[in-house]
């Protein structure tokens, strides 16, 4: 039987659900979400429907169905599991020129509900030819492909373009969020950092403009002000611009500066958080930044600022980003401020790369033990470092005299 696919606007319109069981409950809530004026006709209803009825969200006619209950309805769903009742509802709907969703009997229905998923502003509706399982499987496959970017949606309409500040995670492309991948698949321009997961750039369409604005330690070839201007300029050309950054844009990533620059220029901005290396790289080395009975809190710092005000207890973990070059002076400052030099410490280089390396020592010896460490690296100081040996088998580096 041929059908005509159609979307319905049901907001404020009367829709009748006949039945109070599992199918009727699911359909009533779906109709309620669409804004319909939902009326349930049934002698008994499920607990879920009872709650919604108690809140006044759904009107309940506590009795069996009778002819006339469809007066004024735009749509009816019947799902009583009593064939004579469902047949009567379908008959009355036909007589009243009302479309009827007939639970368990699609051949005698005049309307069918597809398997539906929503990904951002896209609605996916799949009809499986009466096979609900097949429709659900197809829907899930399409939704997943949209979420991951495997099925890209290019050239969305934005009056003044869009800038998406996307956190790329700690380096492993598998840790880039599904939303981040989706935006990359839609991008006209990708502006990326040195620590962003650059392997995903190979997946971009050939016409996507790719701009490297990566910074090296103590060497910023493209100043932040120019990066801000670049994002605004491309977006004002009506383009979708993805600013792909390592870790999370708001953890020492200058995401806030870029957000303000775009908003001051009237450019639409979306922020997509990323997995921050401050937590993920430590975890990958077997060091949780908090652990019951060992550490109750943590601070994330850059290693470039005054350190004397930080908590001095071993049960408060310190995670330093971008500070490996001045590790010796940092350790000395912490010890001078009252930190115990015997506090466990670790330097983790090239997090999530195949050659990731972890050096474990103490606050007093870590500078010598990791003298040859190179960025990118994070430093973790606190009692939780002692857990690395139990979780990964890592051994502490011997003290250097």
Structure summary:
27% of the residues lie in helices and 21% in strands. With 401 residues, it is an alpha/beta fold. α2 (47-54) links the parallel β2 and β3 (59-61).
**CATH superfamily (homologous) name of the largest domain:** Tetrapyrrole methylase, C-terminal domain
User: Averaged pLDDT, please?
Assistant: 88
- How many domain modules? 4
Low confidence ranges: 393-401
| Structure annotation, total helices | 11
What do we call the CATH topology of the largest domain? Methyltransferase, Cobalt-precorrin-4 Transmethylase, Domain 2
Please indicate the percent range of residues in DSSP E strands (runs of 2 or more).
15-25%
Largest sheet: 5 strands, parallel
| Level-2 CATH architecture of the largest domain | 2-Layer Sandwich
CATH class of the largest domain: Alpha Beta
**Helix vs. strand class:** alpha/beta
Rg on CA atoms, Å: 29 Å
Q: What is the straight-line distance between the termini? A: 85 Å
Write the layout of secondary structure elements.
Layout: E1 14-18, H1 22-33, E2 37-41, H2 47-54, E3 59-61, E4 75-78, H3 83-95, E5 99-102, E6 115-119, E7 122-126, H4 132-148, E8 162-167, H5 178-186, E9 189-192, E10 209-212, H6 224-236, E11 240-245, H7 255-264, E12 268-272, H8 277-284, E13 297-301, E14 316-321, H9 327-336, E15 344-349, E16 357-362, H10 366-369, E17 377-381, H11 388-392
Question: Main attributes?
Answer:
alpha/beta, Rossmann fold, Cobalt-precorrin-4 Transmethylase, domain 1, five-stranded parallel β-sheet, 17 strands, disordered C terminus, methyltransferase, EC 4.99.1.4
